[in-house]
Amino acid sequence: MFKKFISLEWKQFKRSANFSKSLIVKIFMGIGVLYFMSIAVAMGFGMFFGLKESFPDSDPWVIVNNFIIFWFLGELVFRYLIQKMPVLTIKPLLILPFTKKSIIHYGLGKSIISIFNFLLFFILLPFSIILMVKGYSIINVLAWFFGMLAISYTLNFTTFLVNKNDKYFYSILSIIVILIGLEYYDIFKISTVAGNAFNFLSTHFYAIIIPIATLVTSYFLSYKHLAKNLNLDDLEEKKKEVKTTDLSWLNRFGEVAPFLKNDLKLIWRNVRPKKTVFSAAVFLFYALYFLMMKKSGMSGHTMMAFAMMFVTGGFAMTFGQFVPSWDSEYYQLLMSQNIRYKTYLDSKWYLMGFAVIISFVLATPYIYFGWEIYALLVAGAFFNLGINSYLVLFGGSLLRMPIKLNEKAKAFGNTQGFKMSQILIALPKMFLPIILFAVPNYFWGFNAGILTIIGLSVIGILLKNFFLTKIENIYQKNKYRTIEAYNEK
Amino acid sequence: MIKTTNLSKKYGKVTVLNIETLEIPKGQSFGLVGNNGAGKTTYFNLLLDLIRPSTGNIVNNGVQVNTSEDWKPFTAAFIDESFLIGYLTAEEYFYFIGELRGKSKADVDTFVAQFEEIFNGEILNKKKYLRDLSKGNQKKAGIVAALIGEPEVVILDEPFANLDPTTQFRLKKMLKELTDNKNVTVLISSHDLLHVTEVCERIVVLEKGNVIKDIKTSPETLKELEAHFAL
Fold first, then answer.
1. Which of B51, B52, B82 comes nearest A330 by C-beta?
2. pLDDT digit string (tens) for A434-450?
3. Any idea what the Cα angle at residue B53 is, between residues B161 and A470, rounded to 5°?
4. Tens digits of per-residue pLDDT, A112-164?
5. ipTM, 2 decimals?
6. pTM above the 0.80 mark?
7. Is the separation of the CB atoms in A205 and A138 below 8 Å?
8. For chain B, which domains are there?
9. CB–CB of B100 and A337 under 8 A?
10. Cβ of A258: how many Cβ atoms within 10 Å?
11. Residue A61 three-state SS
C-alpha cells in the first residue's frame, strides 16, 4: 500500500510542469535547492562559532535556547500563510481501494516532506554535531536535537488544525506581536521562560518526552480532524451565499471601470490575491525596521530612501508584478473580447495608483520621525506612481506564469517563472530609487535628491500613455506564447 | 463573411488542421462535426486569434484575424470555461460583458430575461459565483453571455455537451431563432449529429484536420452523417 503511494508521488513529481522543463531549469532548481541547504548548514556552523565569538562568556547552546522560541513563533505564522493541507491530493484516492486510515496517515506523513521541516533540520544538524564534538554530553545533544525537531513537526500538524480558521491566525498573530513588544521593552521576557524550558531539555535528556508527547498529540488530533472531514462535502469549501457586489460608484472612471470593478472583486473573493494584498499591507511597517536600525546608527539617508519606497509600494509590487497573470484563468476571454489592452493596462495603473495614495495617507504617522523621513515618504510615493508602476507592469508582461486564484502559493514552486528577464527587471526596481536619490544627494544634498525623484516621477506620470503603449506592444507580441503558457495546467 | 485561405496548424511534425479554402457567408448557420482530434477547436482558436496559424489566414468580415483586432467588436464566442470569470456571479458577468459591448445594465437585464426558461431558475439571483455552478449551468451562462450585444459572429464550441436533455431542446430552439436572423453568422461545433443537423443549414465534417465533407443540410443529411461515422 505504502509503496503504491510512493510511486504515485514520484510520478507526480517527475511529471509536474516544473520538472519536465528543460535541463537548464532543472539544473537551476537543483542549484537553488543546494544553495539553500548550504546556507542552512552554514548557519548551523556559524551559530556556534559566531555566538562563541560575540559572547565569549556564555554558552552558545544556552543562547540558542533562549531565542529559539522566536524561530518557532515565526514558523507558526509562516506555516499558516504558506503550508498546504494534504487533503488536496486525496480526492481521487477516496474511491479507490485504499483504506481511509492509510490515506490519512499517508497525507499526514507527506506533509512532513516540506521545506520548513527540512530547514530546521539542516540548521540544527551541524550545530548539534559541533556541540557533540566540543564535548557536550552526546545523549543530551541528541535528545535536544530530536526534541527541537519534534516541536517543529508539532507545529506542522497544528497548522492543519487551525488552517481553515482565520480567527485563530489573527489571535495567534496578535499574541506574538504582543509578546515581541513585551520582550523588547523588557516587561515580560518570553525568551527567558522558553529559554529555561529548552535549557532544561538540553541538560536533562529525559525531558524529550515532552516534545515527543506534543508531537504525538498533535499528530493524533490532526488525524482525528481529517478522519472526520474526509467526505467530499466536507473537503469542499462550504459554498456560502454571496452578495452581488455593486461597485457602480466606480463607473465615474469611464472606460477602465469594468476592469477596476473586476479587480476589486478578484482581490477580495480569491484566496491568493487576498493573501498577497494582505502581505502588502505589512509593507507599511517595513520602514519601521529600518528606522529602528537608524536609531542604532546603522543606516544613512540612501537606505532610508530605499525603505520609504516600500511603504507606499507594497501593493504595486505584490499585486502589480503578477499582472496579467492574475487573469490567466480567463485570459482567452479577455483576448477575444472587445478589450483594448491599453484600457486594461490603464485600469491596473489606476488601481496601483489608488493603493499608493491610500497607503500614503495611512503612512502619515511616519511624520513622527521627522520631516526628512516624511519627505522621503512623499518622494517614495511619487516614485511608485510615476516610475515603479511601469517597471512592475513591464516585469509582469514578461512573466507568463499562470496563477490559480484559489490555490495557496507554494513556497518554492514558482521556479517555472524563474527567468533571466525576471532577475533583470528586479534589479532596476531595487536600485533605481537608490540611484535616483543617492546621486543628487551626493552632489547637491538631501533636497536635491528628493526633488530629483519627484521631478522624474511627475514626468513619468505625464508620460503614462507613452509607457503603457510600450507595454501594450509587449502584450501583443507575446500573445500566443502567453496563452500557451496559461493553458499549461 | 468568414474566409479561410490556406490555413494550417502544425505542432512539431503533426498537422492538426489543414483547410485550403472555406467560405462562410454572412448569416449562415454553420456546423462543424468530427471525431475527437479532428481540429474543430483548433479552427475556432485560430478564428479567435488565440493560436498562431502555421500557414494561411482567416478573414472575418474583411478583417484579417491575426493582423488586426477590428474583428473583436462584432465577434462573440464561448469555447470553454476559460471564457468565464469564476469569481463573478452570473449577473456580474453579464453586466461585465455588456459593458464591454456598450450595453447598459438595464439593456442586459432585458436581454437576459428572455432566457428565463433555459436558466430554469438556477442562474439568476442565486447568489453564487460562476465557479460554484454546475458545469451545465456554467455553460448556459457562457452561451447567453456570448449573445449579449447583438454580435454579428457567434462561435460556440460544443454547446450541447454537458447540458441536460430539456436544456438541449431549449437551446436548440433558441439557436434556431438566432440563425433565422440573417445578420448573424453562427458557428457551432458538436458531437451531436441530431442537434447539429436541426440547427445548421450547412455542415462541414473534419477528419484529422481536413475537410472531408461539406454539405447543405437536407432531410437526408442526418442519415448521411450517421453512415459516415458508423464506419
1. B82
2. 777 777 777 777 777 78
3. 105
4. 777 677 778 888 888 888 888 877 778 888 888 888 888 888 888 887 776 66
5. 0.87
6. no
7. no
8. 2-229 (3.40.50.300)
9. yes
10. 23
11. helix
